[in-house]
Amino acid sequence: MDRNAEIALARTAAPPSVSNDATVMVFGKQGYETAVEGKNGFVCMVDRSWNDRFDKPEFWNPKNRGPVCYNPAAARTALPITLMRTKFVLAGQSRDEIHESMKAAVEKKELPECAPGAMAYMLSKQGHLNDRCGNCAPHLMFYVPLKDAKTWGAGAPDSPVIVNTHFNGDPEAVTEFLVVVSEWSDGTPADDHAH
User: Fold this and answer.
1) Closest CA to 174 of 70, 88, 96
2) How, if at all, do strands 174-180 and 43-47 pair?
3) From first to last of its 195 residues, what are the pLDDT tens digits of the chain?
4) Distance (Å, rounded) from C-alpha 34 to C-alpha 28?
5) For strand 23-28 and strand 31-36, is the pairing parallel, antiparallel, or unpaired?
6) What are the b/e assignments for 93-120, b being 16+ CB within 10 Å?
7) How far apart are the first and last CA of the chain?
8) What's the pTM value of the predicted model, to 2 decimals?
9) CA 150 to chain centre
10) Bridge-based pairing state of the strands 161-168 and 174-180
11) Residue 155 region by backbone torsions, left for phi larger than 0, else alpha for psi between -120 and 50, else beta
12) Alpha carbon of 164 to those of 36, 146, 169, 177: distances in Å?
């Protein structure tokens, strides 16, 4: 993907009031690198398919592009998961090898513990999260330690909080919750049937 196009796509993850002053990382031959230095502690980038569940059929789908913008707490504690997985991908590891490498990193405590208040925006109309739903629905993601997962009421009947199996202890020691919101990052309303 062209560097400038990736910067623009990464910025669509969050409202301009957040993404305009965020650091932007782009994917290059050596992994993710900083393309734009930010001022507000947020980090926007475009996730690739290998940052999803290990059992997902689209784990290697080259079309998947997920614009995401981490708040400062998530940039310190959730973003390192993405960066480490990417390092293993670029080393030529298979899906099973990446899973084992991540499991070993967790056991050796090579990843930071989930920080309180860690969250990310995923509000881009232009992303492609998977072939089933395309850009799916605009949502916020909240990261909590595994032991705190039940305190959110996630997955309960009529709860708007969804447990995402993206990170849920397999093997990263974090649970990711999704909360679908009504607008895309550009302020336009989301289609109620998008999710």
Assistant:
1) 70
2) unpaired
3) 899 999 999 999 999 999 999 999 999 999 999 999 999 999 999 999 999 889 889 999 999 999 999 999 999 999 999 999 999 999 999 999 999 999 999 999 999 999 999 999 999 999 998 888 888 899 999 998 876 666 777 777 887 777 765 666 679 988 888 889 999 999 999 985 444
4) 10
5) antiparallel
6) beeeebbebbeebbeeeebeebbeebbb
7) 27
8) 0.90
9) 21
10) antiparallel
11) left
12) 29, 12, 11, 5
Helix axis angle, 95-107 to 79-90, nearest 10°: 130
* 17-18-23 Cα angle (round to 5): 135
Which tokens belong to 112? Answer: 């930071």
Contact in structure between 26 and 80 (CB atoms under 8 Å)? no
